[in-house]
Amino acid sequence: MSEHNEQAHHIVGPKVYVIIFFALLLGTGLTVWASFLELGLWNPVIALAIATGKAMLVVLFFMQVKYSTKLTKLTVFAGIFMFLTLVGMTLADYFTRAWGQW
Amino acid sequence: MSDSPAIAHVAEDAVLDEHPSYLRHHFNSTEQQADTANFAMWLFLVTEVMFFGGLFTAYLIYRNWYYPAFVVASHQLNVGWGTANTAVLICSSFTMAMGVWCAETRRRKGLVLCLTLTFILGLVFLGIKGIEYSEKIEKHHVPGFHYSLQSFVDPASDPDIAQYHDKPLALDMARHTELYFSLYFAMTGMHALHMIIGIGILGFMIFRARAGAYTSGHVTFVENFGLYWHFVDIIWIYLFALLYLISRHQ
Amino acid sequence: MNYLSKENGLLSWLLTGDHKRIAILYLISITFFFFIGGALAGLIRLELLTPQSDLMATDTYNKVFTMHGVVMIFLFLVPSVPATLGNFFIPMMIGAKDLALPKVNLLSWYLYVVGGILVLVTMITGGVDTGWTFTTPLSTHYVNTNVLSTGLAVFIAGFSSIFTGLNFIVTIHKMRAPGMTWFRMPLFVWAHYAASILMVLGTPVLAIAIVLLALERTIGIGVFDPTKGGDPLLFQHLFWFYSHPAVYIMILPGMGVISEVISTFSRKRVFGYTAVAFSSVAIAVFGFFVWAHHMFIMGVSNYAVLVFSLLTMLVAVPSAIKIFNWVFTLYKGSITFETPMLYSFGFMGLFTIGGLTGVFLGASGTDIHLTETYFIVAHFHFVMVGGMLMAFLSGIHFWWPKMTGRMYPEKLSQLAALITFIGFNFTFFPQFILGVLGMPRRYASYPPEFQILNVFSTAGATILGVGYMLPVLYLTWSLKYGAIAGNNPWQATGLEWQTQSPPLTENFTKMPIMDHEAYDYEWLAKQQEKEVASVG
What we know:
The complex is a heterotrimer.
Chain A: H1 6-9, H2 14-35, H3 42-62, H4 70-97
Helix pairs in contact in A: 2-3
Chain B: E1 8-9, H1 30-65, H2 67-74, H3 79-104, H4 108-138, H5 150-153, H6 171-175, H7 177-210, H8 220-244
Helix pairs in contact in B: 1-7, 1-8, 2-7, 3-4, 3-8, 4-7, 7-8
Chain C: H1 10-14, H2 19-47, H3 58-77, H4 80-93, H5 102-124, H6 138-142, H7 147-174, H8 187-218, H9 232-265, H10 273-286, H11 302-330, H12 339-362, H13 364-370, H14 374-404, H15 410-437, H16 451-481, E1 512-513, H17 521-535
């Protein structure tokens, strides 16, 4: 008689959570420090990269996606993909307007 | 009888040996029920991603079009408060994750503690947001309500942003700061609304947790709420990076 | 004992978790809104009998076509097949006792009703006249009509749709009976799965577009206002990001019905099951990449026009694949012409014409001339009315015996199908010609030389109205006086046909096991031999 569903098959313990917690705080400090530097085009790239790194830690460990079924991973991927489609294809219109007539 | 004998059937007693009270009649097992609820929550979060996606799209377009206005306007946000709020939410995600662990390992008192801490941290976040919003109101940086261009056409007159040595914006570019604040309020406001709903549900959960509802094997509600809470945290991680940290070099 | 007779009383219906009862609740409410939308269409066609704007003021005309669009799209077409037939039959087709989330299902219906009531209130308190597309800055700055309440109604109805789609996806993944693999499911289920993906991923973007529209209209935040640096086209990007997939949300479930009906009435398994299943998903995926073909003349970049035009050509391919597969299903089948089959034939012909004209419009060169004319009106009515509505009627007639335990009068229903087909063609074919000749859409007056075609169109609409009224009358009649239907009057193969009509509340007395492929008519014949043997 199994009471564990696939999520709880692997109960993520406090050790992992503490490590991720400190990693997230570190990432926050890092991104704030980086924003005070003059890096031109790289500023937003670094900010988004660090934000994405933090988000991935939350998704994989706090939300336990690393230990989840393929279906869950596919669902997360579908959401991200659709979001990127919306942003990407819309921005593509705006960026190419300045290109003029062919 | 009512079914055609044409279709094969599962044997009468093969289906279930235990019937926990929380097992709904249309499910065959608690596993199926928990799996289903979890998947449903993930799908809901995907809809939320698309919902916020529209706001992020608008933000990215106008930041690209009016970059100088967005830089100067973003200096009006206090990076200290923003960083503090980010830390607060990260802590609350940690306490929420610990709460899920307590539910999974049947630690009733631990669960109540973790949920309560998450609740308090959520309120702290809103409190800081309230402080930030009231600052914006005082300085007339709320779009549509006597919006003031003073700090943008004449940055020297604003002591709050002295350290950035912003150059004055031309009048038309200064007007576009209103777009930045429109998006700031829309995005953080929508986020705050989600926080308020989450805090409300947390309050309900604390009551139920004290009664042991989540520490006797049925952890679905806590787990799935945790997913929601972490998602709201992730939205803030991106809002912080995009709204507060555009360019703070001095 | 069945799901209808199990419990009586209003509360047992209004608080039900039974997917079949919720389906009936939806059926009643969407029929109501269909006739509201139809009445508005009648007013449009009446006005267009004469070249002048003489029946109503042009402002009123704007309100009439706007409300017609809002009601028909959001309150009829989007929920039509999914919320009625999908709700009723998806659990039965996969061998489940109910949908995964029965309470969410009921919530969906209540959200729909609230949205619908809001639309009615809007109509009574002055209506809205921006067109169902709420184009900015017209809707944000230049009209004094009820944009906000309509927006709120659509927002709420949108969540009804999201929750339905979410429920279907979870159900199809998690609630299939033993042996019911993905590729043994009826194609009706595949079609709804694809439509549900669109509902879940697309509708939230409409929701945020409406939120921003409301903020722009009330506070004037400037996101769509050029005087404040905003771009009106941003609204259109967000609006059409949903509204294009919305047309696939509307048509895919109808295509699912066609697969079932064509197979049953040609006694043959659907040709190319895998191709049809994958083409449903392909339509859903590609449907997300083409939205700006509604914006070719609005000011998007030339490169966007190029890319979106190309992608639009691609999205037509999976739809065509389905038509080919249905035709090959018919080939060498034992075809009979019961009413559901008649409507399906109508669908195949009319959807093909409508779909082809969509390809003409996808080519940006021709679109520049044809957009905002009656060509577009004809195109979408061919796919939505000639296509989707016919599929809906096909499905209602096909599953009526199962839902109600009664047969409808066959000769009368065949006549109604014929009347509908004739009326439809008279109404909408002239509109293709009008569009090519240059008659603009959304205009109450037009040059006199267009009158004869408009008169044809209105005459056709009258016939069409008769065609739609008849089913309401005889289907209602059949509830009391129709012949008792058995379990499987059509000798169809789905699991839903292997149990009583009307079904039990829990659908099956024992959990079924799926041990054969979909559309397996040999299996069905063997089972019927077994049944005869066991009785004899």
